[in-house]
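Lab notebook, bench 4. The sequencing result for the construct came back, and we need a structural model before the next group meeting so we can plan mutations. Quick request posted to the team channel:

Model the 3D structure of this chain.
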Amino acid sequence: MPETPPHDTADVLVVGSGIAGCAAALAAAREGSDVRLVTKATRPADASTDRAQGGISVARGDPDSVKADVLAASDDTADPTAVDVLVENADDAVADVLLETLEIPFDERTDGEFDYAREAAHSERRILHVDAATGTHVLRPFLNYVDGHERIEVRQDTAALELVTHEGRVHGVLTDEASTGNPIYAGATVLATGGIGALYGRSTNPDGATGDGIAMAALAGADVADLEYVQFHPTAFDEDEPFLLSEALRGEDAVLRNGDGRRFMAEYHPDAELAPRDVVARAVEREREATGEVVLDVSPLEFESAFPTIAERCRERGLEGDEIPVAPCEHFLCGGIDVDDRGRTSLEGLYAVGECACTGVHGANRLASTSLLEGLVWGLRAGEDGAASGDEPRIVEAPTLRDSDPVLPDRFAAEKFTRLQGTMDDYLGLERDPEGIARASAALRRLKGEVDAYTRTRTSRKLYELRNACVTALLIARAAGENGESRGCHHLVTDESTAAESTADD
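Done. Here's the predicted structure in token form:
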């Protein structure tokens, strides 16, 4: 009998170490499952959760108000059933995991009550936060807790390269632990791989946000949805290496001014600076083009004391005074791998949670401070469901990964990524038009063809990240080309719409 190649097994396998992945691992372990959590990250900052600033929205006993805000921010495109799941599980999930299990020290007022913040498109103060660095204060203790759990084994610096499938079912993943791609077989596999920021020239995401989970799932045949809805945050520091300036600043009365010193947002939306993100982002970009720059004026608030982390970052960049130059920046993918209310995908044995998943909650545009909440709620539900399925890991034949040709120089992937990012920035950014989308599709197909020629005979993380980025970019372009309706983050500009805007301006 042939010898079985090196492999590992687990009841539940989680790929990704942000809040969604940690929640899935925790929930599965609580059900008694043997859990493996693999992540290509080697430090918390490699996960998007660590960079989340504003906080996590809760219902505060008024779920109908939250649901209304989520739907309004989505331009009424969010799935009401998914919104119900999010909001009705919000307070219990936060209380259970963040307050009771992890004891996150959310900011409090002098009377001992939580200091709830307000952010754009929220009608009430309902955001739990720690300064404006909530993600850091949530993720690091969460990772420590998960890493210390007796039923969870965490493997850092381990990338998933391919899903292992057989007869329409997912049985685990191939990893880069060895050049042959050592498989981990599991009864349930949960993808929690994060976003797509590396597809764009400027992003608030970590460099490793290359769309890995979306690409792996799509290549295995899983359904995807809403990939055209790429959200740009309106207020990122305006430089080549941006950092986020939290919406909480505008929630506490910071205002946007153009290059002429004029406050302009009231001309674009009745809620001015607190309009939905897609509206504010487009307004900021148009004013930058018209007047040369846009600044966030923080003089109306106690910036240094109220937001010490952001203030320190600004001072480290040499910024003095109250006006911070800002520009829109890729921030969040509202779509992803299509899932149900338990995170189940169209492939048996495969779940997806967090930013790589499309739950339907965000529709065409995400409401501020709902991403951590969505990751927590769906992570818990997917982990519990995966464990409850009781499926045993099954050893099946895994794909063969070849590594026979010489290693490519480091600049190879970097140069290809530069081409990819240029295409996405030029044609699939804040505003798109049908001709540009078609150009992007053609350019991305050529690029993917070039990359595929190398992945057939080489196995490396950088090369697979590049492949995943190309696949995900093509899926975004295809979704954008198939959707002729301009809504939320998918903002189409045509000759007719431009003429209509010019007439309105007159």
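Residues 497-506 have pLDDT under 50 and may be disordered.
Will bring this to the meeting.
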